[in-house]
Amino acid sequence: VVVVVLVLLVEGSTMPAYELSLILRSMKKDVLVKQLVPIVSSISSLGGVVYDVKNTGDQELPHRMRSHFQYSTKGNYSFLKLECSPAALGDLRHSLSQNQEVIRHNIVKLPENAKPMTCRFKPFKK
Length: 126
Description:
This protein is an alpha+beta fold and 126 residues long. It has helices spanning 29-45, 89-98, and strands at 17-25, 49-67, 70-83, 102-109.
């Protein structure tokens, strides 16, 4: 899934960097893009900047999850790297908790001098 996002990076930005991990309900790619665009624009409206969007696609959830009175066994995993003020995180969490398509969300603050991580293990073959 490719999401085209207008990115405005400011040199020497003082806002901390975060990673937003989302589990969305299982859906087709075109519908997924329509669900991610309002999330990205709400981050922008709160004064934040999204500079990376990754989607790993539909996967089986580790266990059955309930959100908004519906149970899900499959979900679509998306990861957004963003910069925003700490004061805006409360509003972002509230808007994500109200979104009917979001099963789970988590926001993690990234270290300032973080190097990009690579996967070091190989999947096993049956």
